[in-house]
Amino acid sequence: MKTITSVIMAGGKGERFWPKSRTNLPKQFLNISGNKSMIQQTVGRLESLIDISQIFIVTNELYAELIRGQIPNLPHDNIIIEPVGKNTAPCIALASLIIEEKFPESTMIVLPSDHIIENEEGFIKILKTAVKVADHDNILVTLGITPTYPETGYGYIESTKELQILDAQEVYKVNRFVEKPDADTAKKYVESDNFYWNSGIFIWKTETIRNYFKTLMPEIHDILETMKASFNLDNRKEIINDEFNKMPDQSIDYGIMEKATEIYVIPCKLGWDDVGSWTALDRINDRDDDGNVIRGNILNIDTKRCIIESNNGKLIATLGIEDLIVVDTDDVTLICTKDKAQEVKLLLKELRTQKLDKYL
């Protein structure tokens, strides 16, 4: 059987989950749902498919110790350190090179570290199918989440009508990737039967993605070749870091997925959520009779459709409020309307402007 490897991208700061997600302890290392952190859940579900030695995590120096603490059985060398955050294309490119050295001709599963997947058995079954599809030359595979509402915060994938059935799974050829839509467009996408949320989960052979970098992102390919030439040198780490700094800051979606032609999507209904902002708690948690998601020491009267979380034991008392997010930590209290949840980053920008970095 062909070797399967996985790349978990874990360098993000989870800024829309501020103030609980912080620079020193971002969202992927928090227990958002369940009694394990999001990255522990991600690794755990992959371990039902492949050995821990075939799982790689890309992150930065700041989070390397967090990963070692939370995933103690992960081989030390399987933590790939980016010297600087450069978006998903450089992240995936570097990982493909490291994996190619250790597991030649393997098939990579690329996924974020901070997604919730309720149907883990179904997820693994779909990944096995995706690996089979990706076993052909020049084929890229992605998982498309069947939309349940007109979300404007996700990119979408439009499929063609070209269908094949493999392992009882539908597999469609992709027509195009589309950017985050406005509300009217998102509604049209949901009403159609061939648009899916872009999960950010990809499957391909290392050789295939390296060829796509050569064709569509030659600047990154040339840098990878310089890195590869340093593998047997004593200053390998320094060369890789120096060359990585030269990479363009670009997403894999824009650099490759929006330009490649041989892409296939497998539609999924997995209880998936990317937990992108505080309003995700409405979707992944039980609500009380008034539609509230409550965590911690809370007293509420005539409070409706709110998300309220106390992280320090202090009592939060609410009276007569609706559609608000209230999050209290040791040093910050966030209060915002739900419709502004995607804009929490604006507060962080203002903190930087006012040089209040201690709250980031």
Automatic annotation (TrEMBL):
Q: What PANTHER family does the record tag this protein with?
A: MANNOSE-1-PHOSPHATE GUANYLYLTRANSFERASE
**Which residue numbers delimit the MannoseP isomerase/GMP-like beta-helix domain?**
296-351
Transferase among keywords:
yes
Q: Name one Pfam family in it.
A: NTP_transferase
By what name is this protein known? Mannose-1-phosphate guanylyltransferase
GO MF annotation, one: nucleotidyltransferase activity
Report the residue ranges that make up the Nucleotidyl transferase domain in this protein. 6-287
Q: Which UniProt keywords apply?
A: Nucleotidyltransferase, Transferase
Membrane-crossing residue ranges in chain numbering: none
